[in-house]
Structure prediction request, 275 residues.
Amino acid sequence: MLEPYIKRIRKNSKIHITGKSSVGVKLSEDDFRFSVPEFNRIELIERSDILVINHFSLLPYDLISKSLKKGKHIFAVDYPNYGINEFEELAKLAKEANIVFQFSNPLFNHPAVQWIKNNIKPPAYWDITCYKKDYKDELLTGLLMMLQGMVNGSPKKISSLSFKNPLALSEFINLRLDYGNATIVNLNFGSLNSDEFTIKAFASGIFVALNFITKNFSYNNSKINPGKIKFTDEFDIFIENTQSKRQPVTEIEDYIKVLHNIASVKSKLSQFSDS
Prediction:
């Protein structure tokens, strides 16, 4: 999972890869393609200025807290499973130390989504559908993280609906998100026997349709070529921000807002638990 980050770091002459810590991590053959020194986690943190972490489950909260106090910049590849109160404390430490604690936002980082971000302004209506064969809670986290970046804010009102069909091994969840700035998002997600991920966006004089499974992207029925969309990758922005500060990214405060939204959604969906 860290391979693309290693490749990009090696292209930056200002950054030296100190090492990695993979104890407790199941490695694939691809992970051995790069010759990177191995350290225990405490020693590696002491030696490094930047930490790229993709297995927070192996790192105690206290260790992350101490890393921030020592001024270590952090790029989170996966989503840590700490409590909201713990994240709020980490956010305070990051602010006091003036360091970058950035979260990967892969759905938002797609060129076509970046195009929407730059070209559609309120009032707007979004219709998003995302189904996975192996639906997990991380899907909702990723979708709300994407929306946090796209709409640049948190919803003021959330309505929800959910149905399960054990015979079809499917689950349907609908959220209607009102952002209070004339932006409405209709979000359908859950599990089906085939993957589906589409975004439709409507604004004055604009209709955008994105299909991430078929890779068909259009604006007012004209094709969008994601390969020609110029934007700065989130990890490149992270590296730049650790050196010069500061372009907008998905930071720890954004993740805390998403966690609050998820808590609200789960509370609302609990009434449908027997459906």
